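Troubleshooting entry. The earlier prediction with S-adenosyl-L-homocysteine gave an output that would not parse, so I re-checked the input for stray whitespace and re-submitted. Clean input:
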Amino acid sequence: MTSDNPLSAAPGEAARNAAGPLLPERLARAITLAGPIPLSQFMGAANAHYYGTRDPLGARGDFTTAPEISQMFGELIGLWMADLWDRAGRPAARYVELGPGRGTLAADALRAMARAGLEPPVDLVETSPTLRAAQAERVPRAEWHLDLVGVADDAPLLVVANEFFDALPIRQLVATAEGWRERLVACQDTLFLPVAGDRSFDMIIPPHLRDAPPGSILETSPASVAVLRGLAGRLLAQGGAALIVDYGYEGPAIGDTLQAVRGHLYANPFEAPGEADLTAHVDFATLKQAAEAEGLVVHGPVTQGAFLRALGIDARTAALARATPARAEDLAADRDRLVAPEAMGDLFKAIALTAPGWPVPAGFA
Ligand code: SAH
């Protein structure tokens, strides 16, 4: 979402696809002409096409996210923001969301905030024309941007990004008998497949991983770090806070987390690029390090389960059940999907970034 965002060409993408060759053919031609391409380029092109051409969310789409499971998710995040804003002295502030999907989280959060006296201008950072249209139905007063650059610099920012960073392109390095190589995507006929590049990457591998067994994979996401740095620059200059919720890990980890989801089932990430959601687990340790290096204060990560419980999801479930007793069982089931360790509760994590001098956000005590 900074200008070097590999996906920033996304909005034109759908139009070009409508007119020109389909994405798999274009990728195949590029690879045939110039050789295998980095995984990050493959993933960036696939997701720009995927998100640009459909609404992938919900039971009839490819995957379901926390705000689509329950209104409680967005409402609690709205109250989290309102509480922080209140303790920061109620400054003028802007609501910013990265990758807002259908706009459900924004609508739920803004409704809850308004009840707490906070009615900020709304900036939605979204590249997909299809999803922008869905967002406009739920949050008509929003302004849309391709990246953070367009967001006004006149007030502190209250930022949320749910399941956004997992969709940004990753790069993979793979250990081979000859040392570490970048994982590239090659093409045979119409079949895409990962291959190891020729160039050595041993120089950038941490010493303890130099002798990892062949096949070991190390992931990085330069695009995620670039977005995070852009965000940090704005929070430092304007004040405010950002809440990032996503599935991921907190350690220095090794392993292949690239996955494709289509029709709620796992698929082969190299098959039918642009027709499945390609994601990778978020490396929270690296995001945290990058944010701290920029001068932000980092809170967490904590698990989504612990975060939502600390914000009072159990009391909110009970209150909604009292209001509509017929829905009590459904409400409890939705709550469990969000917080139970075997559902989203443990794999999903929340991290908060605040400008120096801002209060410690709720849920990260
Ligand atoms: N936050 C929503 C949607 C998650 S799906 C929810 O929780 O339901 C990922 C979202 O990020 C989609 O809205 C997708 O169009 C958007 N997106 C993906 N890559 C993006 C990019 N580079 N810049 C802006 N938005 C992007």
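This one parsed fine. Residues 71-87 form the longest helix (17 residues).
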